[in-house]
Amino acid sequence: MKRRNLPLYLGLAILLLFVLIALVPSLFTSYSRKDMFPPWQGMSSEHFLGTNNLGYDIYTELIYGTGDTLFIGVTSSILSLVLGLAIGTLSSSESFVGSIFTSLTNMFVYLPKLVTLIVLSTFLGSSSFTLIALISAFGWVGTSRVVKGKIVHLSSAPFIENCTLLGYGKLHTVLHHYVRNLQDVIVSRFLAGATSCIMMESTLSFLGFGDLYHPTWGTMVNYAWKRGAMLRHAYNYLLAPGFAIMALSLSFYFLSLFFEKKQEEINL
Q1: Alpha carbon 52 to its chain's center
Q2: DSSP per position, 117-143
Q3: What span, in angstroms and rounded, lies between the C-alpha atoms of 42 and 31?
Q4: Which long-range contacts (CB under 8 A, 24 or more apart) does 161-165 make?
Q5: How much is the CA Rg of the chain, to the nearest whole Å?
Q6: What is the dihedral of CA 206, 208, 212, 217, to 10 degrees?
Q7: CATH number at 6-24+52-260
Q8: Which three-class secondary structure state does DSSP give residue 51?
Q9: pLDDT tens digits, residue range 73-93?
Q10: What does pTM read for this prediction?
Q11: Does residue 230 sit in helix, strand or coil?
Q12: Which residues contact 54 (CB under 8 A, 6 or more apart)?
């Protein structure tokens, strides 16, 4: 039983650590984001990951970047999930409205997401809220298709047919019956979406479209690359945020792995 729950324990432990860092960063570093030291210092007991070209402590930047990375990733995933649920439900309808939303979903499937996001980010700016809006606007497609398939499958179930015969409205059936049977989809798509949104935000920030006033881990990698970390052999400046992104993505992956196995056991 313990071995079966190992992905859950690992995922929760890593995720809760990052949440604690995001909520109380001062517990993990004695410096503030504005404290400056001699530039390009190596790793030491005073500066765990050294300092960058401006003299900021890299470890402190990493700690304070946790909250911004988590905020954008989780918020984008929640908004993508809400959009996916709404559009998936609407597209499952055998009506003119359903066909419109089905066509919309098919159109977004074939759009080159990264290229489109880069173009839109160039025109709309690079604030955290712009990134959240853009990632959410293009992150709902997978959820929508899964939700539509699930609802179409459920629509032939006896209890849904009974609701129709008893005269319950469509809204009542969706809220009280469809949504309850979509809990596994909601959990799995949120966890998968969080990983996808974090990776997309990191990619855009690395390419220079991140919020400069609230730098995330992706922005840190961008700064390290532009400021000559490779030439200075300051590989810790490049690798530390990369490992942090990987660890946070793994936490959501472990949790999704556990819930998928749980759902398989329930279905059996």
Answers
A1: 28
A2: HHHHHHHH---HHHHHHHHHHHS-HHH
A3: 17
A4: none
A5: 22
A6: 0
A7: 1.10.3720.10
A8: strand
A9: 999 999 999 999 989 888 888
A10: 0.89
A11: coil
A12: 36, 39
